[in-house]
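user: Here is a favour to ask of a fellow structure person. I have my own habits and do not want them to colour yours. Could you put it straight underneath, so I can go through it closely?

assistant:
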Amino acid sequence: MSVPVLLSSSSVFPEPTAAAFELAASLGYDGVEVMVWTDAVSQDAGALRGLSRHYGVPVLSIHAPCLLVTQRVWSSDPKERLRRAVILADTLSAPTVVVHPPFTWQRDYARGFADTVGKLAHRHTGVRIAVENMYPVRMGRRQVVPYHPGWDPTEAGYDSYTLDLSHCAASRSDALEMADTMGPGLAHIHLGDGTGEGRDEHLVPGRGAQPCARLLEGLERRGFTGSVAMEVATRKAGSRAAREADLAEALAFARTHLAAGVAPTRS
């Protein structure tokens, strides 16, 4: 089994999308996950195809614009944003689109979300639309769930999922149990660590308390056929060299533990 390890363009922020391709190529990642955001390059199939060809690194996942800061990217309509993300993935032959559950205030979108995902998947059969686990937001002593019907997509039930380990830490949930619940629907992994302090930290794997190693080592047993995208926060890195060092360490961690889980072949 060969599981591709991708570099999410969010991992190079505040550097632009183009930097993700440059770093993925120089460090030896297998591909890039493009976070569609306000950077025009992240929204443009032609520009992304050009970067992919120039650096020799394929786009293997598209993250739909679901963040609060991307609510106006492409359209103010979240359904249209998802539709365009799927079209972008199909155009670039990227097999995965990552999408968050709807926000609670997106009532119309939330009401028809499962149907929208199903229809898009039916039209674009080469793309898995993988709904990502999120987490409740803690405000002092209060806990608010800003997603409908909740932060855990397995409770609603979808054909495909993205498992984010940093989000598991923020929700104080068991990542391995969630992977079990996702079952064959586990299509994609966002690899990042967390301490379990109720915050979304996206640490380099191995620097927190999440079972990153055990999850990677068990993917062959699970029959996993998707990809692993490195989604770590490097915005506080003091230099490009420090960012490169963090991303190189993250890649080495992923490759080491993926290899450890592969059964030896008999001669």
Summary: The first strand starts at residue 5 and ends at 8. The CA atoms of residues 18 and 51 lie 7 Å apart.
